[in-house]
Every structure is written in C-alpha cells, then in structure tokens.
Amino acid sequence: MKRILLVTIMIFSGLKFGYTQSGGSPLHFAEVINLSESEIRVFINRTRQKIDEFQEFIIILTNKSESRDRRNLAEREALKLFYPGAQIETTLTLENGQEEVTTRLIKEYLYKLKILPYTKVVIEFYDIAYVTTFTKGRDGKYYGTATIFQKFTGFQGDDMVYSSVTKKEIEVILENVEDEFYGEKRWKIFLGDIKASEVKS
Q1: Other beta carbons less than 10 A from residue 67's beta carbon
Q2: How far apart are alpha carbons 194 and 79 in whole angstroms?
C-alpha cells in the first residue's frame, strides 16, 4: 500500500554512551562499546525515520512545482544524511536481457534527479522501510541495511513517458562520533552505499 509522506525535517542527536577503563588506561571506543538489543532496536526505529527524511527530500527535489531554492535545499540536506564518499550502484535490465550497471557518487545522483528532463515527476514509496539488525564491524561501527521500494513516473505535458519500480538496498552505518557542541562522543546514523535494481518498468 502506498504511503503519503509528510514533508518534515527531523534532526537526530543520537544516544550517548560511556566507556570503561582498564588498569587506569582508557581503551579505544571501538574496542569497548557494545550496544544492547534494546539500544539496537532504538536505532532501527531511528533509521526508519532517517530513511523517511531521505524519501521526503527526493520528493521535494524532483518536484518541478517547488521553488528552485527549496529544491536546492532538499538536495543539500539529503546529502548530509550520507557517509562521505557514499555511492549508488544502479542495475538496469536492457531489452536484450543484459544488465547495465552504473555507479556514481550520491552527490551526482541527487543532482541528476533534480535536473531530470521531464515536465513533471511523481515519486512514490511503498510501505515502511525494512531495516535489518545492526552488526558490529571490526572498525567499531555498526552496520545494517534498509530496503525500500520506489515508483518513479515521468511526464511530458499530460503524457506519461516513463514509469518504473525500483528496489533500493541502503547501507546504514552507526558510528560513535565526536559531538562538537557537547564535547563528547555520541552515536550517529549515516546512510551509506545504495544498490538499486529495477524490478518493474
């Protein structure tokens, strides 16, 4: 069932956790911090909220009826959700059955969405994002995956000229980072690389 997304901007400060010391010498955060199951559930819910933000920004920046300033702002805010250097890998199935794979930076992907050569673009998302549990990596970060389905429809005038449904698997990174305002480390959610595959066109 399609969901109607309200355009809201949500800011998440993350949760704060302490760390222990052994023999009077502080250990590295990546070596000592482990999230409990209840804390992971909190971050799974916050990830869904982060994905909603991303979806809402896409709707705004592809909406030809929105002002240029508002679309530019949505592009900048969407980029802030991602880990530096994040990329999107898009797989399209051609008419001859072969697959075409394209990889580009998220920054480039967002810009291309904004300048699509259609007079009208409609973006719809299906159901709530499915988010896997987080697994701790050797680098101390936690990793998960969020899966969403997106319907894209492009128009020229009143005529629909292109429509597709795409599955997007979005890497989610949970990292303990220094909060400049509070002067301490806090958990923060970032979106990472995306794998997009067309499931219907």
Answers
A1: 10
A2: 13
How many C-beta neighbours within 10 Å does residue 53 have? 22
Tens digit of each residue's pLDDT (9 = 90 or more) over 114-126:
999 999 999 999 8
Residue 166, φ and ψ in degrees, nearest 5: -120, 135
Give the global pTM.
0.79
Q: Which amino acid is at 164?
A: S
- What confidence tens digit (pLDDT) does each residue in 71-103 have? 999 999 999 999 999 999 999 877 777 888 999
Task: Give the separation between CA 132 and CA 62, rounded to whole angstroms.
Answer: 28
Positions of the chain with pLDDT lower than 50, given as ranges: 1-32
- Residues 164 and 143: their CA atoms lie apart, in Å, by 29
pLDDT at 67 (0 to 100): 95
In whole angstroms, give the CA distance from residue 135 to residue 114. 34
Q: Two tokens at 72?
A: 């530019």
